[in-house]
């Protein structure tokens, strides 16, 4: 948490740009964090103490208050899920009680954007606990997923996959799945045992399958009862 002096009269979120107006050059830069956001919306639907931003400006610098950093995605905890009726146009730390995102995500595109050096240093200086780099095509000849944790002021890469992040209570890793009709490798949230959490679409299909199974069981029970009546010499159709 960062403390801000109210006498600085810093600009509000409504007065600040909501992004850096830099267009993404790969649709995965939006789809990957949007999928993570949707899964959290299902997983944490009973919680009101989190916010996941996608391609949204983070304002933290009082000396240059109109300068934003814009990760592809970020997660903040212990903040209101809904900050105002119209939602957050951007994430302004002096309006969030100085609460930093606990995780930032960068999705590497074909045009390298400093994810492994300049952006890493910036998030490190800001003291964001977890930094996740996802390279869907491994364009930089590095591992496709790298997860870093801030340890004594420096980022250190965490081993394994999915990577468990205890302070968040989630793991993150890759798996093949379908999102918006596109079957490919995506980033997903995982539980501590390494089981992937379902997407909303998968969850709805699961619920529909359970409902169908329940209906089949009920129909089987009815048919067994009808057969018992027939065995007893009673025509079940005459009772309807």
Automatic annotation (TrEMBL):
SUPFAM superfamilies (UniProt xref): Restriction endonuclease-like
Molecular-function annotations in GO: endonuclease activity
Residues covered by the Putative restriction endonuclease domain: 23-160
Keyword vocabulary terms for this entry: Coiled coil, Endonuclease, Hydrolase, Nuclease
Pfam families membership: Uma2
InterPro entries per the UniProt record, alphabetical: Nuclease_put_TT1808 (IPR012296), Restrct_endonuc-II-like (IPR011335), Uma2 (IPR008538)
Coiled-coil ranges (or none): 203-235
PANTHER family linked: SLR1095 PROTEIN, SLR1612 PROTEIN
Protein name in the entry: Uma2 family endonuclease
Native organism: Gloeobacter morelensis MG652769
């Amino acid at each position: 948490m960062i403390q801000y002096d109210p006498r600085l009269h810093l600009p509000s979120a409504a007065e600040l740009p909501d992004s850096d107006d830099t267009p993404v050059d790969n649709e995965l830069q939006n789809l990957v964090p949007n999928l993570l956001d949707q899964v959290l919306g299902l997983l944490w639907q009973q919680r009101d103490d989190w916010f996941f931003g996608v391609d949204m400006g983070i304002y933290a610098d009082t000396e240059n208050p109109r300068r934003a950093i814009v990760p592809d995605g970020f997660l903040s905890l212990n903040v209101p899920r809904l900050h105002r009726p119209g939602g957050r146009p951007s994430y302004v730390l002096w309006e969030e009680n100085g609460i930093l995102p606990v995780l930032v995500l960068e999705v590497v595109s074909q045009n390298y954007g400093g994810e492994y050096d300049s952006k890493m240093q910036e998030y490190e200086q800001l003291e964001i606990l977890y930094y996740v780099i996802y390279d869907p095509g491994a364009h930089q000849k590095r591992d496709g997923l790298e997860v870093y944790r801030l340890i004594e002021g420096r980022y250190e890469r965490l081993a394994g996959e999915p990577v468990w992040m205890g302070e968040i209570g989630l793991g993150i890793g890759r798996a093949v799945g379908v999102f918006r009709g596109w079957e490919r490798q995506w980033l997903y949230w995982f539980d501590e045992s390494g089981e992937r959490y379902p997407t909303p679409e998968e969850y709805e299909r699961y619920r529909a399958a359970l409902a169908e199974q329940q209906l089949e069981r009920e129909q089987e029970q009815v048919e067994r009862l009808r057969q018992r009546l027939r065995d007893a010499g009673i025509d079940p159709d005459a009772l309807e």
